[in-house]
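Retro notes
What went well: the complex prediction finally ran end to end.
Inputs used:
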Amino acid sequence: MTVAARRSTCKEKDRRGRVTVVGIGPGGIHHITTRAIDELRSADSIVGFGLYVNQIRSIIRPNARVYSSGMGHEIDRASLALELASRGRRVAVVSSGDPGVYGMAGPIIETVNKLRMKVDVVVVPGVTAATASAASLGAPLMTDFAAISLSDLMVPRNKILERVESALKGDFVLVLYNPQSRSRKEPLRLVHKMLMKYRKPNTPIGIVTAYGRAGERTTVTTLVRMLDHEIDMESTVIIGNSSTKIFDGKILTPRGYYSRGQPTRSRTRTPSRTLR
Amino acid sequence: MTVAARRSTCKEKDRRGRVTVVGIGPGGIHHITTRAIDELRSADSIVGFGLYVNQIRSIIRPNARVYSSGMGHEIDRASLALELASRGRRVAVVSSGDPGVYGMAGPIIETVNKLRMKVDVVVVPGVTAATASAASLGAPLMTDFAAISLSDLMVPRNKILERVESALKGDFVLVLYNPQSRSRKEPLRLVHKMLMKYRKPNTPIGIVTAYGRAGERTTVTTLVRMLDHEIDMESTVIIGNSSTKIFDGKILTPRGYYSRGQPTRSRTRTPSRTLR
């Protein structure tokens, strides 16, 4: 081995690995940030769930090595990514939406700590399903909202229901992630029963499925009719609070700009001027 | 007027106006989606709060007309944008973070309905402060979370406190938007008092200020010391739930991947394979 090669090997051993956990938005490639695109392009190794890796194939380097897996392998995926990074690879872990909202940021950080690895973890935020779905529906989230996942794989069902109940008592707008799947329909039915207890039957409901992808669908309906509609693993469900309304096919939770017929807190001096 | 000019004028009158409400992310230009960039580049008229308009000046057309205003003019800004759109302009309203999270989507939709204008409203989602701040801190939001604004301009203070209390009872991770300003410090003190009642003094707290901008700061601390730190209008505060921990300077709310020392629900068959 030459001196240069030996020096290079030593440098690699001393260099800490780095994993970037990249939020790729809700679907397609148009809701990805320029920072996320740069990170994906810089990576020589891409790790992720197959569907999401396919979503961003047009962005990654042609010679990047891709490690694609099926559902439910978050810890294995995390371990693999960290192992590759500790060997000097530039690793990007692909996470749908935002990595910190029921995504890969948690498994990566839990694993790097459990395994005591000398790997830096950088999280690149993305557009999460709550805000993408809300954009499709109008402005349902304008006041305080709570995000709850109905996936009961790791959180006990009664805990999920307690959370829903607290959020309803606080009059939050609710955003349901992972609302149901073909094999998991009971949690949503139980939640619906609870919703009917705390909210009026005509409470606005928004269901957005496959945002940004082929087959994208947006449904505006009311609470009493919620379960009549198709809701699956690609859906996000938004449940209005006590003030939420439907206007012209859009859902709006007013923030109080218009109270008793006139604008509030909109100061009366000339508001706008043209600048170049 | 020539026949062609008259026809053109008639077409313009029949054409519905269109306002795009564009989320520009938390700061800088790197956390903007490619769709948002396209919309900003297509617009001939840009409407927004001065600070946010300046953030994206490098993206907009050189000859775009810019209508920039001070704080608190949401309804006036909305009315102006809709008026310009109804006259045939391609209008983009700039909204920090995501337009539907305490942003401009609500005022625009409320106003288009109040004024019964024939203008289409399209909302382009962006990266909101909750997820940007979380990315800076590690993975604090991995389970269910609630977003609450402490701005009491339009929502009564007691209502805000009730919401905080419900979220605490439900063991949500909390994200506080607009936590305090030079003239508005009392709400955060009252919230802190309530937090100390429901959470342990060593509950992890994250404070992220000016994410993506000059002067960006990230602080990881504990609940009992929260008010010792600088928190202002550009800050987002994240309050852990009963499971949240600090590891190696990062905040993590575990989702249950590691229970009783071993991974749960990580199926044992070979999880990863290389694809090209």
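What we learned: Chain A touches chain B through 99 residues (CB under 8 Å).
What to try next: split runs per interface for comparison.
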